[in-house]
Amino acid sequence: MLMKKTMRRGAVLALLAALGGCGAPELDGAEDRQDMIQRPAASGSALRDGEVPGASSWAVTGSMGLPRMYHTATLLPMTGQVLVAGGFNTTTEAYEPRNGEWWRAANTLTTHRSHTATLLLDGRVLLAGGGQHPRTGVNAEMYDEITVSWSAAGRMITTRFGHTATLLPDGRVLVVGGTDKEFSGRTLSSAELYDPGTDTWTATGSLAAARTHHTATLLPDGRVLVVGGDDKKLRRNTAELYDPSTGTWSSTTSMWASRTYHSATLLSTGQVLVAGGDPEGRNASAELYDPGTRTWSSTADMNDARRYHTATLLPDGRVLVAGGYHDNGGIHFSAELYDPATGTWSSTASMNADRFQHSATLLPEGSLLVVGGVGNHDQSSAELYVPEALAVLE
């Protein structure tokens, strides 16, 4: 249910010219919860050249107090707000969908970027790994929505950047791969499990191939599919399965294409859609993994080659891919929809800002909040994708 407490509006924060470090000031903590970062929403979005007008649209909403990339965004279960954490500083902000405004939540205990954020079964949010230097890459901490505060969690066994974190059906969190330094270092094949009940981490086998910039998808049967990635030298097409009941890894069939910085989305059919991704950004191809047969099949190519994009399953079963980067086309404004029923992609309205390394969060009423990222526009900006069904209701 939505928070009943009324939050008063406060002063607008000036947009910072530089990211964290370099003497940039930080946002205040939980004591300033009622100081709203008020940036009124603008309606609608312009159509790009060659774009067919349609019912779906993007609308600018309030901007964050700071520009962010390499951050995380998590939908909070009690309030329906979105918690955005990290990037290049310790600040966190929360988005209130009811009025399109941001408020300043408590600062994290350490700086996180290239980290993961996982919503636990009890409603807390686990931040793990990432940071400004290797010694912070083992840190984990917990956000409590009720107290609006962060507390230290058990430290991971291994320093990690660019890893994945997957919530398992039993409430534990599986963390896989990554590197032991943010932009260099050794690529990891190890995996570990976090138990919220004991606040401890335990090793749980190793991948057959070390990887970072991969994806990890929870399958309907409780196993986790890890796909693609790279080891800083070799781009991978291999895939592996983790079985929580045995704590073991097994290889499954390889993809048709090698991919890194791609997306993986569990469809309502139980298949996994993997799209885009390679270091040169040339790959517009997509393919489907069938857990029942453990096989891959090709599906239609995207309209635009992209990496560093987001892919979100919408309530109607389609997948919205937004933004990303392509070496020839640069940073994308464009978005497109995949329809599992037809196996085809179609263009939809373009974003108001070009973005990659952004976040995308599905809100309870069915719209999609896209936040921050790298682009040629304000990196503190946010916007909402409104699908046709919601546009009709409005």
From TrEMBL:
Kindly state which keywords UniProt assigns to this record, in alphabetical order: Kelch repeat, Repeat, Signal
The record's annotation in SUPFAM superfamilies points to: Calcium-dependent phosphotriesterase (SSF63829), Galactose oxidase, central domain (SSF50965)
InterPro entries associated with the record: Gal_Oxase/kelch_b-propeller, Gal_Oxidase_central_sf, Kelch_1
Which residues are the signal sequence here?
1-23
UniProt xrefs under Gene3D superfamilies? Galactose oxidase/kelch, beta-propeller
Against PANTHER family, the record matches this protein to:
KELCH REPEAT SUPERFAMILY PROTEIN (PTHR46344:SF27), OS02G0202900 PROTEIN (PTHR46344)
Q: Which protein, by its recorded name, is this?
A: High-affinity leucine-specific transport system, periplasmic binding protein LivK
- Identify the species of origin: Cystobacter fuscus (strain ATCC 25194 / DSM 2262 / NBRC 100088 / M29)
For this protein's source organism, the top of the classification is: Bacteria, Pseudomonadati, Myxococcota, Myxococcia, Myxococcales
